[in-house]
Design a protein that fits this description.
Radius of gyration: 14 Å
Mean pLDDT: 79
Number of strands: 0
Structural class: mainly alpha
Helix content: over 70%
Strand content: under 5%
């Protein structure tokens, strides 16, 4: 049963990475408005938080924190406002999805 759960976690982690890559591509899209990029930034922050939770369940160190997520987004050269929104939303989703209550 443990191997089955680990395989499922690996699949979910791979799916989350694919989602993050797609969201990064969307942030690069010059045709999107600032409002649309803001929604994409929120989704990216949410999925980064979910990925961290999945990695923690697997026993690995979380991939993102506020600084590394900021660097991840800056690599694609988005507006500073969008990068700040990603970090802000990440803090929100990290608290909202926290296993500690």
């Amino acid at each position: 049963m443990r191997a089955h759960t680990s395989a499922n976690l690996d699949k979910l982690i791979a799916i989350e990475w694919d989602i993050l890559k797609d969201l990064r591509k969307m942030l690069r899209n010059r045709e999107l408005s600032t409002g649309e990029k803001t929604r994409v930034a929120n989704a990216l922050a949410y999925h980064a938080s979910v990925l961290n939770k999945l990695l923690a369940q697997k026993g690995e160190d979380p991939r993102f924190n506020e600084l590394t997520l900021g660097d991840y987004v800056k690599e694609i050269q988005v507006q500073a406002k969008i990068a700040r929104l990603v970090r802000r939303d990440f803090r929100f989703w990290t608290r909202k999805l926290s296993l500690k209550k």
